[in-house]
# Entry
Amino acid sequence: MRRIYLDHNASTPLAPEVAAVMRRAMEDGFGNPSSPHWAGAPAREMVEQGRQQVAGLLGCAPEEVVFTSGGSESNNFALKGAFFARAGKAAHIVTTRIEHPAILAPCRFLEELGARVTYLPVDSAGRIDPDDLRNAIAADTILVSVMHANNEVGTIQPIADCAAIAREHGVLFHTDAAQSVGKIPTLVGGLGVDLLSIAGHKVYAPKGIGALYVRKGATLEPLIHGAAHEGGRRAGTESAMLTAALGAACDLAADLSGMERVGALRDRFWTALKSRFGDRVVLNGDPEMRLPNTLNVSFVGRVGADILAQLDGVAASTGSACHAGRIELSPVLEAMGVAPEVGMGAIRFSLGRTTTQEEIDAVAARLSGILLQSA
Ligand SMILES: Cc1ncc(COP(=O)(O)O)c(C=O)c1O
# Structure
């Protein structure tokens, strides 16, 4: 059984350069970054260099970067921070039906606390219509949160257009960029956003670290109260090892040139599947406005999990789950209006920096073996 990793949207391996930075930080950055003495200084330098590197990738000022524990915390901070900063006032939030649970679950929680939330629909490619956003914004809207790129199908949203609409109405705009960072440009100036979430383990850094970009002047109530870390926005002693790791990963992620190769491999994979399976394979997501590493395909009339079980050694994800003998489509595929007999056969292959042509060709050949044999 040969191991092939095609699940980079779930998590990326640690980049060797990042691991080297972490080793150094573990040895030299043990002090408390807030301590004024000799042991604190190197740790503080590592934290602040990491912050500068994250800021470099996002095109913002270092003071606008708040370190968090990951994508979920960044999203929770954006949503709850905006809500609690305006506590006591009527609050309306606009988001989409295809967000990650790290957006949808806090929205549901805030609904319990009295917020009104509008969930925008998407078309069959998974894109929202900016006009729907324009129509949804009301006098009490405090925040719009639209993901930059979808984790399951890779569809990229028209963030700059949506952010401009929010700005016209004086409403804060957040985007969850956990999947887009390092794959497509994520400069906050170009996107026009006020808040942007990133997650370390999607960008070749470890789990346990992420960041939220908070535009200067945007006010959020902290989720974690305590001492004045992170400019008073998130209490807790920073880890030099994790922040340096995220910084090193962001340095690497700023160079998008490798994504062309990844995109070409992804397209080669799709062409191979299409030529083998014809109409029995369907692309999920936008054919053009899509992350270059993501290929979500449905094998019509098949069950994705069954295929993956036979693709022994190949790590990928399905878009449906089987509960008590019933196939349940993922909420993303459901929102896109994918028919159950198509959606149940969905598999997400997500490529990464180290994916090779040989791996892609091997998986395509094995899929042929599995599917044509049992056809
Ligand atoms: C789009 C998106 N947002 C947020 C998250 C959550 O990030 P984390 O696992 O770092 O909490 C993920 C992870 O799957 C994601 O894909």
About this structure: The chain has a mean pLDDT of 96. The longest helix spans residues 258-277. The radius of gyration is 21 Å. DSSP finds 14 helices and 15 strands in the chain.
